[in-house]
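User: Can you help me understand a structure? I only have the sequence.
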Amino acid sequence: MVKPELTKRRIVIAYLIAVVADLLEFPISAAEVTVVVAPAAEGVDVVVDAIVFVIMTKLLGFHWMLLPSAFVEAVPGLDVLPTWAGCVFFVVRQRRKELNPEPLPKAIKEQSVIDV
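Assistant: Let's start by predicting it. Here is the structure, written out as tokens:
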């Protein structure tokens, strides 16, 4: 699977969508407390999270961290945590590490030489 290029624009858009999705969770969770609109609110919650999952996958490429974030959002009460913003932070950090791996420190390079 080819990962899309990690541009500054993609990262900013991903953060904006994640923050908006996390902010939408508050009124949706409040609506889930009332018995009358609870089923509809839960349905809206699932749809919002599914849409955010797809958008994040398109913007940042698939990452395993998107799956637990989507599942945590489905748990009532936990969905008020900023999981999408945290997920974007983690995915961007991991993708940057993949693109620019840190070189081994000189001390470790020297230790890996076997002297016979």
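Now, to help you interpret it: The mean pLDDT is 82. The longest helix spans residues 8-33. Let me know which part you'd like to focus on.
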